[in-house]
Design brief:
Layout: E1 3-8, H1 11-21, E2 25-27, E3 30-32, E4 36-40, E5 46-48, E6 75-77, H2 82-92, E7 97-103, H3 108-120, E8 127-129, H4 137-145, E9 148-149, H5 154-182, H6 192-207, E10 213-221, E11 224-228, H7 237-248, E12 252-264, H8 272-283, H9 287-299, H10 322-328, H11 335-344, H12 378-394, E13 399-410, E14 413-424, E15 452-459, H13 468-476, H14 485-494, H15 503-512, E16 516-519, E17 522-525, H16 527-535, H17 538-541, H18 543-558, H19 563-583, E18 593-597, E19 604-610, E20 613-617, E21 626-636, E22 643-647, E23 654-656, E24 663-665, H20 666-678, H21 682-695, H22 703-709
Parallel strand pairs: 1-4, 1-7, 7-8
Antiparallel strand pairs: 2-3, 3-4, 5-6, 8-9, 10-11, 10-15, 11-14, 12-13, 13-14, 16-17, 18-19, 19-20, 20-21, 21-22, 22-23, 23-24
Helix pairs in contact: 3-5, 5-18, 5-19, 8-9, 8-12, 8-13, 9-12, 9-15, 14-18
Length: about 725
């Protein structure tokens, strides 16, 4: 019997597809049914080969060997994916397998994952494409009833390949050129470097800021505060005092009253970036942390639609599914609000449904799956609740308010106040907002007795440092960082720096390589990061570069732009940039150099900090010596419950809490906790590990599982 081979991106997704299609027979690397075989990757199994695969000389980093511009670029297996790749290749060569269904994530990177596997395996069999926006049984079944020809997505694959190849040529060459030129472990890229540049620019703005005192003249009457309509900030103290004195001699008279009613439309649904911004603002969750929880809600719990979306609206075909999605929310924490919405019906507007504004995937919304809140982790629950509340808000009526603007004349001064009264809370009631206070009862021409004037001294404040939320916002809309109007337009069309799928990884990388550090929720550039921005060519640190590239990828995908032509231009630009770095006379200084010599080459080691702790690193990349000084662990302080830091070596290792000062040796800690481990019976431990293995596709690798791995149970 002829069979189709279905290739998913991850084991968890593949197993769900297999379950829905009735493929129950376990085989090496997959599951088989009567008319289908389901297999899976582990994300990328295949990648572009490293420079050393083209020439032995590239094993050593030398400026004289740059730029590296091999053509064509080769593919190679990622080491940890070799076994699975060869299992997939065996399945592809089976005589009963007559076609392939690409079921990887429905997007640029998902297409690349599958196409590279098929290309390296030499597969020439017909292809079809599964394109779905949720992982529910219904969505999977409907998706397989509406498979698309694989050739429909050839241009998407070309765009994905262009992105990967361009990043190889530019990123690897610039990184090697910087490292060789300055004998420091430096890296640059078309997305990470402009992002770093924005943070450095913000820091420079803060450092150069000079605070100035100013005075604010205000009035108040019956608890309502009135601001000066002429100038909120008066920088001349004598002038401010004169205005105060003059006003105190005058009578306050109501000059104008404006009453207006208006509707406040419901907010739009979340895309990935707006959700990451909100989660960071509300819960201080990092972008990667939010994406991880969202991915679990999508893949494991099947409660939300496709995560990596850049759309904030729905397509018209989804409108008929909205009542069913509402019904599924009845088991959650918003039962009362859901019940009311089911009675009132869904409000469909252009802010909610607009086919023209949806790219590959619609906005984030709940699926038709019923929720069991007890199954969700704390972070998953937070993200799920945000999506549900926004969904309920987006399909609710507009809020109606009445604004009441009062202008009061006091001599030559004019003061104004605007208050708002809710006429109908509409969507605002979903999040629990209550009715506002009554409007003040004043009339035009009325003299206001006891209208009090005050003069308050304040100081101008420097701009706020970035949080992950505000940085994501500027990555999405970095127009103010470029001067050319054409580039601003391109940035608006392409969605800014990077994509919704890559921004979280970019931030994590900038932390990991030591260009960023986080203090009390704010992002600071390190000395290394600041210097890098001085060293890299102007083109690489401008948001215009990544905007231009994204525009080219869109042209390749939608307008028949040839990938080879674009890559040819990238090679020429790479030659130019490498030459510019080689001829630069800028100096790089290590400000984190220690007096500790490298045991391998003798150079003085550098002390490097990142999110996971500190380590000593040899500045010579050829040497590559590294030594951990301290490492943030998952162990919790028994006094303040913050994460403990592991320090010391060998028998001298100890835990330290950087918050409250708690210290305890590793030996003492292990002895104390051994009794707790022994109290766990074999059944509980086995059940726990099985649960974790089921939930995770990668090997279990958490603190408790590691602790239990070699534990001997009493029979």
């Amino acid at each position: 019997m002829e069979k189709r081979l279905i290739l998913a991106e991850k084991p968890s997704v593949g197993k769900e597809i297999a379950r829905v299609l009735g493929c129950k027979k376990p085989i090496n690397g997959g599951l088989e049914g009567n008319d289908a075989i389901v297999t899976w990757a582990f994300g990328h199994l295949v990648t572009l080969a490293g420079p050393e695969k083209y020439d032995e000389k590239y094993k050593h980093w030398k400026m004289s060997d740059l730029p590296m511009l091999p053509t064509p670029l080769k593919l190679e297996l990622i080491p940890q994916g070799k076994k699975q790749f060869f299992e997939i290749k065996k399945m592809l060569t089976r005589s009963d397998v007559t076609e392939v269904v690409i079921a990887t994530d429905a997007g640029r990177e998902g297409e690349l994952v599958a196409r590279w596997i098929l290309k390296l395996a030499g597969c020439k069999k017909p292809m079809q494409r599964l394109w779905i926006s949720s992982q529910t049984d219904r969505a999977i079944k409907e998706g397989f009833q509406n498979l698309k020809p694989g050739k429909n997505y050839d241009a998407l694959y070309e765009a994905a390949q262009a992105r990967s190849e361009a990043d190889w040529y530019l990123g690897l060459n610039i990184t090697r050129a910087l490292t060789c030129k300055y004998n420091a472990q430096l890296s640059a890229g078309r997305v990470q470097t402009p992002t770093l540049s924005m943070v450095v620019a913000k820091e420079e703005e803060i450092q150069s800021f000079q605070s100035r005192p100013f005075w604010r003249l205000t009035g108040s009457h019956n608890g309502v505060l009135y601001a000066s309509a002429h100038s909120h900030q008066v920088f001349d103290q004598e002038d401010a005092k004169k205005r105060l004195a003059a006003g105190q001699k005058e009578t306050a008279v109501v000059k104008l009253i404006e009453r207006k009613q208006k509707e406040i439309p419901a907010p739009q649904l979340y895309d990935l970036t707006s959700l990451q911004i909100e989660a960071n603002r509300r819960y201080a969750m990092g972008a990667k942390q939010t994406l991880r929880s969202l991915q679990n809600l999508y893949e494991r719990h099947k409660l939300v639609s496709y995560p990596r979306t850049d759309s904030r609206v729905l397509t018209s075909d989804l409108v008929e599914t909205l009542p069913e999605r509402l019904e599924a929310l009845m088991g959650g924490s918003m039962k009362k609000e859901v019940h009311q919405r089911l009675k009132k019906g869904v409000q469909v507007t252009k802010r909610l449904v607009n086919d023209k504004l949806v790219s590959d995937h619609h906005a984030l919304i709940p699926t038709e799956e019923s929720v069991f809140l007890s199954d969700l982790s704390k972070d998953e629950r937070r993200i799920y609740d945000l999506i549900v509340i926004r969904f309920l808000e987006a399909i609710a009526e507009p809020a109606k308010v009445e604004t009441f603007k009062v202008k009061v004349g006091v001599g030559s001064e004019v003061f104004s106040a605007t208050t708002t009264k809710s006429l109908n809370l509409g969507w605002k009631a979903i999040a629990g907002e209550s009715q506002s206070d009554e409007l003040p009862k004043v009339k035009e021409g009325e003299v206001l007795d006891h209208f009090t004037l005050r003069l308050k001294e304040e100081k101008t404040q420097p701009p706020e440092r970035y949080t992950e939320a505000t940085l994501l916002r500027d990555m999405e809309n970095p127009k103010r960082f470029v001067k050319e109007e054409a580039m601003k337009k391109t940035l608006a069309q392409t969605g800014g720096i990077g994509t919704v799928a890559t921004r979280a990884d970019i931030l994590e990388k900038l932390y990991a390589v030591g260009y960023f550090e986080e203090k009390q929720g704010h992002i600071f550039p390190t000395s290394k990061g600041k210097q890098l921005i001085e060293l890299v060519p102007e083109m690489v640190k401008s948001p215009a570069l990544t905007a231009k590239w994204e525009g080219e990828f869109n042209r390749i995908q939608h307008e028949n732009r040839k990938r080879q032509e674009f890559i040819g231009e990238i090679k020429e630009k790479t030659r130019e940039l490498v030459q510019g770095i080689e001829q630069s006379d800028t100096i790089y200084r290590h400000d984190n150099q220690t007096n500790t010599p490298c045991p391998d080459c003798g150079k003085r080691l550098l002390r490097v900090k990142n999110k996971n702790g500190e380590r000593l690193v040899c500045p010579d990349r050829e040497c590559g010596y590294k030594k951990n000084v301290s490492k943030v662990t998952n162990a919790r302080c028994p006094e303040c419950h913050k994460k403990l830091v592991m320090m010391g070596e060998g028998d001298q290792k100890f835990f330290k809490c950087n918050t409250c000062g708690f210290r305890e040796s590793l030996k003492s800690w292990e002895k104390k906790n051994a009794k707790k481990k022994q109290q766990m019976n074999k059944r509980e431990a086995t059940k726990y590990i099985q649960k974790m293995k089921k939930e995770k596709d990668e090997p279990v690798n958490n603190a408790l599982a590691d602790a239990l791995k070699n534990f001997k149970f009493d029979e």
